[in-house]
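new request in #modeling-help
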Amino acid sequence: MQCKICKNRKAVALLRHHNLRICDSCYSPWLERRVYSTIKQFKLLSKKDKICVAVSGGKDSLSLWTILVKLGFNAEGLYIHLGIEGGYSDKSLEYVKLTSEKLNKKFYIINVKHELGKSVPEFPSKRGTCSTCGLIKRHFMNTFARDNNFTVLATGHNLDDECATLLGNTFNWELGYLERQSPLLEERDGFVRKVKPLCLCSEKEMLLYAMIEKIEYIEDECPYSSSATSIFLKEILNKVENRMPGTKMRFYKEFIKKKNLMFKGNREELSPCKICGTPTTDEFCAFCKITGALKKFREESVNRSPVELASREGETNPVPEQQNR
Amino acid sequence: MGKVTVKYRNKKVELEGPLRVEEILKQFNLLPEYVVVSINGEIVTEKEMARPGDEVLIVSAISGGSGAM
């Protein structure tokens, strides 16, 4: 079975949703062109941008970093060490180092245990480890990028990730989350611009790219992800895709095209969290709630003198001295 | 007739060959939509035939949960 592009070499993949048989030589340029066209279509990046690529050591984020550098973008990596047991986080870091050396690009490390005194699995959570982990990562990705003058934060979310999120949020009619789902989240009120250049590439396409380009990545599943809902949703979506090729792409692209009609003018107002300053719809952000910062803040508030409390709240005329005695 | 060795995750199974890759995937209850298969180190499509003595490796593309960025 020959490649449909060069009509010469043996095909290594049948991509039914693209009606394409493709060989290993034609594959990488084809995928890189597709990523570039996604960047152009959604106006995600420009060559002037200083890009922070969130890298986990997995195939998607390391492939994204590689593609952006190959396309001539100025992209550096950020690895968040989550402290996952069994050497998982340390091993992931090794793969990030390998890609960094290969690309000759810098990367930065944030160690959650050093920053918060606990690794991600040590946080007690009603929301589940994956949800807590996502929240902590999003917080550090945004604050790091913002404080280090990166103009944009790029993540390796692929088409399957986006479709699983879309399906999960539709099952629960999470209108707020549905409204925010997009390949591009513009810079806003303390949030740096966030982009997903792989949003139109399937998980299989990304795996093929990593294998053909010989990108070394962590193949083991995160020990906490075996029961992750996202994996279950991806399996459902792939069953539908197998029966009706192109379903995932239509599901996502049509949603992106039509969502502005559904959510016009419903944007929630954000204000800075009273503890860390992260933009939030509430008084305190979710990060401060789950990391214990809010509890500490409240305990300290009880012990704080009325003068301190008043001045923290920005009152110009604190409690009269007489009452303070 | 002879055996084809198939590796998937931490499992290693021997199947009677020759047989097509898509048949192997069916036996593992997998779909071509989310796996990449190689025979003796070369990436192949699901239409490829695995012959006795061949070593087939199945790699799953699906990932998720907290480790992914």
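bot summary: Chain B touches chain A through 23 residues (CB under 8 Å).
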